[in-house]
Amino acid sequence: MADTSKPIQDEKTNLHPRNAHRSRYNFQALIKAVPQLRQFVSQNEFDDLSINFTDPEAVKFLNKALLKQQYGVAAWDIPEGFLCPPIPGRADYIHYLADVLAEHNKGEVPTGNTVKVLDTGVGANCIYPLIGHKTYGWNFVGSEVDYIAAASAKKIVEDNGLAAAIEIRKQTSYANIFDGIIKPGEKFDITMCNPPFHTSSKEVNEKSSRKWKNLGQDKGTELNFGGRNNELWYEGGEPRFLNKMITESKQFARSCKWFSSLISQKATLDGCYKSLDYYKAADVKTITMSQGQKTSRVLVWKF
């Protein structure tokens, strides 16, 4: 009998306890789900099956397989050049929001289509609504300012027969976040966002170039995870974007029970706390998340 007193070495203990991706990827099962993944899988230096995570096509087909095997999403793709997200970390955000909602539901995570979530900047990949609906049965509205990304997200929804649960809305103004998306009298349980955190396209290119250099590969400014300008940078960076979001959230305090956003840079938090104090937020939470060596935070607030 196995010694169950010893920790499971392959378990990703930094991920949320309910995250389905805490164990190592089962590439045999994933290849069975999406046979095209096979061409990207090989043994690494540790004699384990893996993919080259610097190859955007390999990451995309891994995502296809994970979404099909774990969430029953049979049709998923993204246009060339758009953000290809790491699914385990995206799932973590959903699970931590579920914990927030559970706090005011007698400790039980609310499930079903009575829970309504707004994903601001849903992206071409539509990852958060897919995971959130398939895991908890929640209904989503995904907003998107980029028309190509909005069309891609809508196609994913329609191709998987999820139009009754996930609605994609086009944001017509680059200056607005909630305004123009939340309809009069509409109510959301919580909002979520993965905001752009660079200050300019120049900064994106410089950091990408350094990344490839550190990996010993000459790839210029190519990003292995993709990403168009509006996905990766915002004038003034993450601090300015969050300040705008917090300002608008006050205007929509009656429409949303909770607001939230990922925070990539810890230094952004101080300005957010000051803004939330200025607008007299009734409750503010900061949740730390980590995946591998990367640490991020979820800022959650209500009025």
Concise account of the structure shown:
The chain is an alpha/beta fold and 303 residues long. It has helices at residues 27-33, 56-71, 87-103, 127-136, 147-159, 201-214, 229-232, 237-251, 268-278, and strands at 42-43, 49-50, 116-120, 139-144, 166-170, 188-193, 256-263, 283-291, 294-302. Mean pLDDT is 87; it is low at 1-9, 200-212 and 219-225.
Task: Classify the beta-strand content into a percent band.
Answer: 15-25%
Helicity range: 25-40%
Number of E strands: 9
Task: Give the count of structural domains.
Answer: 1
Distance between the termini: 53 Å
Helices and strands: which structural class?
alpha/beta
The geometry reads as: globular
The helix-strand sequence is HEEHHEHEHEEHHHEHEE
**Mean pLDDT across all amino acids:** 87
In CATH's first tier, which class applies? Alpha Beta
Output the number of helix runs. Answer: 9
Gyration radius (Cα, Å) is 19 Å
Name given to the CATH architecture: 3-Layer(aba) Sandwich
Give the CATH topology: Rossmann fold
CATH level-four homologous superfamily name: Vaccinia Virus protein VP39
Structural overview:
Its EC number is 2.1.1.181. The structure is a single chain. The chain has 303 residues and is α/β, with parallel strands linked by helices. It is 35% helix and 17% strand. It has a single domain (78-302), classed as Vaccinia Virus protein VP39 (Rossmann fold, 3-Layer(aba) Sandwich). It is built from nine helices and nine strands. The strands form two sheets. The protein has a seven-stranded mixed sheet, sandwiched between helices. It has a two-stranded antiparallel ribbon with strand order 1-2. Helix 1 (27-33) packs across helix 2 (56-71) and helix 8 runs parallel beside helix 9 (268-278). The termini are far apart.
